[in-house]
Amino acid sequence: MNDFLPMPDENGYFGEYGGQVLPPELKAVMDQINDAYEEIRNTDAFKDELNDLFTHYVGRPSPIFYARRLTEKLGGAKIYLKREDLNHTGAHKINHCLGEALLAKHMGKKKVLAETGAGQHGVALATACALVGIDCEIHMGEIDIAKEHPNVTKMKILGCKVVPVSRGTKTLKDAVDSAFEEYLSNPADFLYAIGSVVGPHPFPKMVRDFQSVVGHEARAQFQEMEGKLPDIIMACVGGGSNAMGLFTAFLNDESVEMVGVEPAGLGLDTEEHAATMTKGVKGAIHGFECYNLQDGEGNPLPVYSIASGLDYPGVGPQHCYLKDIERVRYETADDQECLDAFMTLSRTEGIIPALESSHAVAYAMKIAADMDKDKTILINLSGRGDKDADFVADKLGL
Fold this sequence. Notes:
Layout: E1 13-14, E2 17-18, H1 24-40, H2 44-58, E3 64-66, H3 68-74, E4 78-83, H4 93-107, E5 111-116, H5 120-132, E6 135-141, H6 142-147, H7 149-157, E7 161-165, H8 172-184, E8 190-192, H9 203-211, H10 213-226, E9 232-236, H11 241-247, E10 257-265, H12 276-279, E11 281-285, E12 288-292, H13 317-324, E13 328-334, H14 335-349, H15 355-368, E14 376-381, H16 389-396
Helix pairs in contact: 2-4, 3-14, 4-5, 4-9, 5-7, 9-11, 10-11, 14-15
């Protein structure tokens, strides 16, 4: 059996993925962040403050819900939802944003910077920064600003500076580039709070650690509800933070199958997708080694997904390692399957999911009917669909 607990190694590698593909001066800054994180992560003061906020601010633990009507409609395996959509700010993102904001405060930083795609990371970070009293600046592609306008409004209300990004595809990858450039202008006073398990070490480790509360809760809750572990757990994968949050607690449970669901967009046979694990190759992006979608010269390709939070050309390094050792299986759902799942869950259970999360729901719907009725699927419902409701309504003519 693989022992996953010590990962990453001291240089930030999960197997051959991760690390710090950075100039020496920036590597020194990342090492300072790692040192600060390691200094406080296991202190009673930090853990007590974060756990208190999880309980009394976020509303943890988030419940597990048995989707009875969806299960009956599909006629196969029992489907359960880990309700991260019920967290304060509406998604799993608040879990790591609180941790990063507390770290920035501990390090004496004057501003926290980040990118956002769907806006959930932006809203969560703006919320956390307002709570701890530190300035926040979020970079967001112009297409995503138009598509996810309710979240933009929330960020501004929370006192965050929102920087529109008009370069390139005007979406998540370009927002990452823009935010990172601003960060490089003053890394001594700024903290770049990466929004997923991506980027240079120590961010894949830190974000995973903060998100692991999802899986630890779910593992205990499911056993209490069903008297056993789930047969399959699944989550959508863009950068991969909500998936790693769920998967981490189950990695050593060999009976539990794990599935990450990527966006196939308009089809894997087109250029309009963001299926990094399915179609990508090994290389470096944004300061770390991972599978990524790139052209013949090694440059990141433009990517697309109906879900703004999934259209990233790379993926977390731990996901890459888990794919290579075949501990996690990576599948896809396309835009139409995503929309169908969005509407089906809304109308069978009264739960409007985020388009990101709908990819995982879509794949569960695809396989559940062919499974025995005593089998179970646990989906990380990573966010709610308030931000997507107007976009979906316009697209479907509702």
